[in-house]
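Cross-posting from the modeling subforum.

Setting up a comparison between two proteins and wanted a second pair of eyes on the formatting. Protein 1 (sequence, then structure tokens):
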Amino acid sequence: MEISPTIFIIPTGIGCEIGGFAGDALPVAKLLASASGCLITHPNVMNGGNLSEKDQNIFYVEGYNLDRLAKGEIALKRVKQQKIGIIFDSGIESEILVRHLQVADACVSTLGINVHSYVVTKKPLNIVIDSDSSKISGGLIENPDTLINAGKCLMEKGVTAIAIVAKFPDDSDSPETNIYREGKGVDPISGVEAVISHLISKFLKVPCAHAPALDPVELNDNLDPRAAAEEIGYTFLPSVLIGLSNAPDIVELPNKNEFISLHPNQIESIVVPNGALGGEAVLAGIEKGLNIISVKNQNTLKVTNEFYDYPNLFEVNNYLEAAGTILAIKKGINLNSVKRPLKKIQQFSYRD
């Protein structure tokens, strides 16, 4: 099958109009996967609380490893099934822990996912949120070592992918949370969520993703539809387990012995919001001469197309146009040939 391997990025915690909420970029991912035949994207795009989908044309790769793939440091190996282990923050209350364990059992019994085991951290992770609804979501983990040690424990038992469930502070009545739920701000917890998953990716080098453990929130009549997926269940764990269930293995490069499904040299394009062109994956893509498809998708960052004089940078108005651009690239169609006005070809003169 003809494919055009494409990386699809919507950075976490920058308030994107599309992709800044609970899985609201999933329809876009399905569209781009259909156009490219091979899409590599990250949990922020795919996770929709209780809602998610598998797609054989989509590789589910944590953001830190997505950057490493773009830089040529790793390759991906397709697998039929991952053996998933769950790390639970010991700060989680017993009732909420039981709810999450029931989700894991449901994913085994109803979806056939291999959720193998879980471990509770020896100490609470102590998540600290530092967010501004008009800027970028952030935060930190006060006890990162206990997270790494819990992951090592699971891997020693044969686990091949890790889901993390951390206890987050109860900020359901904070201005930032209410603004976000009404579709007007940045997800206040997404920045520190990325810190958690990046930590596991960096030190343990396995597929991973994070789901926050939060106290139930009060009903909000003004809820934005893009935030609705976060309001329909007790946990956000289902989409993480669905995504990890057949997430690709990470293959460190160079490697001559391991079978590789996707080598970084195969990647042709990167789709990214306009304004978010300063990330590691995009900069690596520019260095390698990849097609950078910049989509108008309002967010809080300001690294736009005007900062670059790069011939393979294509600005499009929406993700429908991005899909069309990918199809043209895949079919070898000159993009200028479908634009109007159509310019005549240039004449060059010989120089003595």
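Protein 2 (same layout):
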Amino acid sequence: MDGSALRTSPWWLRTGRVTALAVVLAFLNAGCSALTGDEDPNPPAELTDFKPTLRLKKVWTADLGEATEALRLALQPSSDGARIFAAAHDGRVSAFDAVKGKRLWIRKTDLPLSGGPATDGEVVVVGSSDGEVVALNAADGQQRWRTTVSSEVLAAPAIAGGYALVRSVDGKLAALDLIDGRQVWFVQQAMPRLTLRGTGAPVVIKDLVIAGFDNGKLASYSLLDGSPGWDVLLDPPSGRNEVERMSDINATVRTVGEDVYVVSYRGQLNAVAAESGQSLWSQETRSYDGLAVDLENVYVSTDSSELQAFSRQSGSELWKSDVLKNRDISGPTAYQSSVVVGDFDGYVHFFDNVTGKLQARATVGSDRVTSPPLVVNDMLYVQTDGGDLAAFRQVDK
């Protein structure tokens, strides 16, 4: 199937996030329109001209490696504040000066990389499609260790407490020792028979590791030994078939202080207390791509590529934009006074975080932006599935 067909087919076929059974069931529900040549009932929104209210400068660009095709991987840049670390599916991992874009080192791992990298400034950790996890020295890219987890890694690891915390697609969360890569502890949630492709990265608050799972549960574990804390089923599955009952939490949870924000595919955005798992508020919205938070708001990229903003304190909806509807947008990122998302054509879109109005548009390349952009100090970094990395800065008019 060529790129144009992918762009105009329904979300379940366009994103490649579900298994064969899901495609079959959704095909029947959709009346077979995608493969019979009928007009797409949900075409991607056309980009229209507008007057920019924000001026951007593309500071530098870099080539990371070969394209990832339509694999929907979780490759996204990370940073220690001074350097940017990024990986390509062909196994190459690179480090760059964050401001000037000078490549500091490149390392060929010879692995089909799929999640990460993550860094603490000393070590860089990245996972692969065949379940291998590699740790490199942040200073020079030399390999520290290489180990294997139980299945594909489709989320960036988290690094905390001397561990690399790795979520794999079989529902496991493993703590790997940063010194030698040995598995210190692991936990596992029961997996439903049918799930969306993708996993959210774990996050750490104090001595708790918090992660969402494909069974719709948000759970906390002790960072020290993996002992269970609280375990909350945010949105119980219901429906006539397994597609309708999918309740995956694929988007990485976000935190502000000790408040946790999580969104599920089935249709719930929740604010949860990290200490107890108690729900603070919930709103109806569907997402598999992600959410972002700042001090005031929560931003969500919905399953139909609408961008929504909610009050962080009350959960009330503040605004919704549909100008990118069905353009398969990435998860959002809060950047200064903007909310930023990428789309399937390699465009990056900036929205006013108060009004939801489109402020600016830029291009990174011609390939999809799957992962949320990264903010470091006053710069924004965007990676495409084609292996392009670009750094932007907002400038005065």
